[in-house]
Amino acid sequence: MTRLMYTTLLLAFTISTTVLTVDGELHQNTLTVDATDRENWAYVNLTEGETVDIADAATSMAWDLGFKRTGVIANGGVSGPGKTGALALEDISFEDVLKAPEGEYVSDTEQITTFARGDGWYTYTGPPNHWVLPNPKIYVLRIPADPTASESPYYYAKIRFIGYYENNETKEGSGYISIEYVLQDDGTRTFVESEPTSVEARGKLTTTWASIKSK
Q1: Which of left, alpha, beta for 95 (phi over 0: left; psi -120 to 50: alpha)?
Q2: Backbone angles phi, psi at 209, to 5 degrees
């Protein structure tokens, strides 16, 4: 297991990445994002497993999620051009979500972000502790490979929130959001190793995904 530290001094973001598996089309990572800045978003590219410096989130395809304190946004709807939608799953473990389900994948709106729907991704305990604790939900993201196309293959990621503190055991250092995720970027719904239908098809998907995410 390799531990990599990414530090962006310009934006005062810090992100630690524990890379579990990166095998072509299947990316499994655990990230801790410094979301302590109350004014600026920390943007994350899930494929790269790191924060990215975004000049204009409203036009950039290079980010997937944004974090600011307890706020979490996805690149879609009012938050960005990516047309990313999310679906919340309850009463199921992260490991048991083996395939992205059919359902209504919703994007951020002016009224509410996808991660704040229902009871949201966290619970605030109130006094005396004032803790922020992740809810036992699994979120599935649906990300179009090319949002500008009328028809585009989707990529899927399953995400769970692990904690909100630099030290989640002692609850010290708030504003550090930890997530675990699996991203499948071969165009299938499965979150397990799979074979592409053909080398040519896999090549087209990989090329499209890489070119879009670099913008």
Answers
A1: alpha
A2: -60, -45
